[in-house]
Specification:
Length: 139
């Protein structure tokens, strides 16, 4: 059961405090683009001291087998419009040019997949600062 008890406004965002069953949650709609998501995530970390951040939203798909309304869980995230060495040769000096999902959250999603009747797919997600339309798909 989901219930909300309070709304806190910060950084032009509304953070909804509540519960899903026994778990305390904070829900926020960050809006479009990575910068807005980063602002929301940082406020979640600094103000609410969250244990984890789950980013949910809608997006287009490059993989032809993914159907409308499918749930896709990201195992890794890569940029499609940033040079590969930017993340490894500069801050944050990652070991590879991707962000890997938390293994505990992936495990929880995989356990849930076994219980639900709805399809849940897993794979690599790409992000960037442009919308990819059909004529740019191959590029």
């Amino acid at each position: 059961m989901i219930s909300f008890s309070q709304v806190i406004e910060k950084s032009m965002l509304k953070f909804h405090l509540g519960r899903i069953n026994e778990a305390e949650i904070v829900a926020v709609y960050s809006g479009v683009c990575k910068v807005n998501a980063a602002i929301a995530a940082q406020v979640l970390i600094d103000l609410f001291h969250v244990d984890c951040v789950v980013n949910a939203g809608t997006a287009g798909g490059m993989e032809e087998s993914v159907r409308l309304f499918d749930t896709v869980v990201s195992e890794r995230m890569v940029y499609h419009d940033v040079a590969e060495d930017v993340l490894t040769e500069f801050h944050p000096w990652l070991k590879e040019n991707c962000f890997t999902a938390d293994p505990r959250l992936l495990d929880a999603a995989k356990r849930y997949k076994e219980k639900t009747e709805y399809p849940i797919l897993f794979g690599v997600m790409a992000t960037g600062e442009q919308f990819i339309e059909d004529e740019k798909r191959e590029e």
